[in-house]
Amino acid sequence: MADKLDDIFAMDIPILYILSDSRGETAKAVVHAAAAQFSEDSVEIVRVSNIHDLDSVIEYFDENYDSTRQCAVFHTFADGTLRREIRRELDRRGIPSIDLLGPAVTVISTLTGESPSHVVGALYREK
Which residues of 25-45 are buried (b: 16+ CB within 10 A; e: fewer)? Predict the structure, then answer.
């Protein structure tokens, strides 16, 4: 029995990356709420803010990605084109990702008949 426990404790905990074109507060709240459903310290959360192009994501993961650790990406990008580019890059690397903003924006756009503004950090801008 002790051998199995030793194996469990030797495992690296998964990394949950938060990627955002702004501060990442929206994604942080969602990811922390989800992680709270599990034991404390069951995941490591890494926030990468102010991403404005695909090259930044490529550079970040080229320098920081450890293929021996399980991970997933949660992201909130206002620009739909950038969202798709990043999703394709993450898929190419075999990294699961979840778009936390796009589906909600699509539903609201459908309901209102309005096009989204695609303003980065819109939630936190002065009204």
Answer: bbbbebbeeebeeeeeeebee
